[in-house]
Each structure stands twice: as C-alpha cells, then as structure tokens.
Amino acid sequence: MKLKVDNIAFRYDEEPLFKGLSFDVEAGEFVSILGPSGCGKSTVLNLLAGILTPEGGSMLVDGAPIKGMSSHFAYMPQNDLLFPWKTILQNVCLHGRLHGTEKAAQARARELFGLFGLAGYEDAWPSDLSGGMRQRAAFLRTALCDADILLLDEPFGALDVISRGDMQDWLVSMKQHLGRTCLLVTHDIDEAIFLSDRILVLGGRPADIRSEYRVVEAHRTRDWLYSQGELRHRLHDSIRGLEARPC
Ligand SMILES: Nc1ncnc2c1ncn2[C@@H]1O[C@H](COP(=O)(O)OP(=O)(O)O)[C@@H](O)[C@H]1O
Ligand SMILES: [Mg+2]
After folding, report:
1. Does the beta carbon of 39 lie inside 6 Å of ligand 1?
2. Fewest beta carbons within 10 Å, which of 128, 142, 186, 239?
3. How far is the CA of 43 from the centre of ligand 2 (A)?
C-alpha cells in the first residue's frame, strides 16, 4: 500500500521538531530514512504508528487519512521487547493472541520458523537465544501482523557488527518473500544502501527530508555494496553538517 506523509508538524517542546515534513513510500517499496541520532527518525515512526499525534498535516494510506493506531502498520521497535516469561512461539504469536486468532497464527508461525532461522526454537525461552535470533523472532512477530506496511526502527542497532551484517544479509534474502512496503529508519549508511530502493536523508532544525537517493540494483551482495563508494561518499556529505537537537 502507498504511504503519503504530507506537511506534518510536530513538537515535543517549544522548538518544532517537524514543521512541514513530507515524503511518499510507494506500494511494495523499501525506503530508508537515514539521519544522525536525535534528528527525529523514531518520532516519524511513532507518529505513523499512532503513538504520537501530529500538530498539523496528514498521513494517508492509499489516499485514505489515518488517525491514531492503524492496522495498516506493523511496528518493530529498536529493542526486541520479547516477553521473557513466554516461549518464542508464544511471543511471535502475540498479535494473533490479542485478536483471538492464536491457533491460526501458531500454524503460520511454525511454517515460517525455518525461514527466520529459528527452526527447533519454538518452545525455547528468549534467554536461550542469541541477539540475532531474538531480533529475527521480533521480526517474525512483526511479519505475522496482518499489516501491509512494516515500520522498522533500527532493527539491528542493538547487535554487534558481525551479527548485524548477518541480519542484513538475511533481510536482503527475505525481502521478496515479505512482499510488503517497508519503512526502515537507521543511522547506518551501508545498511541503508544495502537494503533500500530509496534513501531519504532526514535532518536539520526543524527536521526535513534534505536529499533523496534511488538505489537501483536487483542483486544485492556484499561485493556490490562494497563497490558503492561514490554513493557512500554522497550520503556522508549529505548527513555531515546536518544539525540535530542534542539527545
Ligand atoms: N519524549 C520526548 N520528550 C522530549 N523530547 C524528546 C522525546 N523523545 C525524543 N525527544 C527529542 O526529539 C529529538 C528526536 O528524537 P528521536 O525521534 O528519538 O531521534 P532519532 O530516532 O533520530 O535518534 C531528539 O532531540 C530527542 O531528544
Ligand atoms: Mg531513534
């Protein structure tokens, strides 16, 4: 589904964080919002998820305005937020449990455990899993929500650099299978290049989309990523000098 963010205004205090933030995400597109810490990336996702309310402007999915929490979105926050007292299967089926469809969710989840690198861990506890596996479990929980648009807040930010690379490789291989519209926020330039169809650079005070880059490549491999020196430089230059409020 197509997402349109149109002229959004928002502030936490007297200084506006956004004064007229606008961008689009096409149906099925993978878009990253890239920017320095504190520029407002998580706030964008919280506004879309209905956790925060904009002062002005509108957000539309396929042309219809959204207000408050919308079933169009599945939100994966930066921390995996798995319940330690529930098994992995119970954790990933949370949405189904809340909506009275736990049995169906469990059947679907069992089919997907292998694809998410979790085969055999259905009845394990979150504490039994590595950081990468926990993130994949959180990802599976998000994917099992019947939402067309995934909102991903630095989903691999808490992982060490090796696990993060593995997770990025895994997500590239999963993109086709997911077949959803994805909006990812990150401060990692390589992650944005590797995963995105389009990169939006967010920054400034008030924050706005300062530049936009299209990434056209069907076969994403590490070799391809490492050959993207020029794009990496351009993104660095775009981000450098963007002022963000102190966190
Ligand atoms: N609940 C809050 N109250 C006041 N200021 C906040 C709150 N949450 C975030 N901020 C501020 O808003 C700015 C944007 O925050 P955030 O969206 O979390 O940035 P990012 O995700 O890009 O690091 C930062 O300066 C942050 O300190
Ligand atoms: Mg953030």
Report:
1. yes
2. 128
3. 7
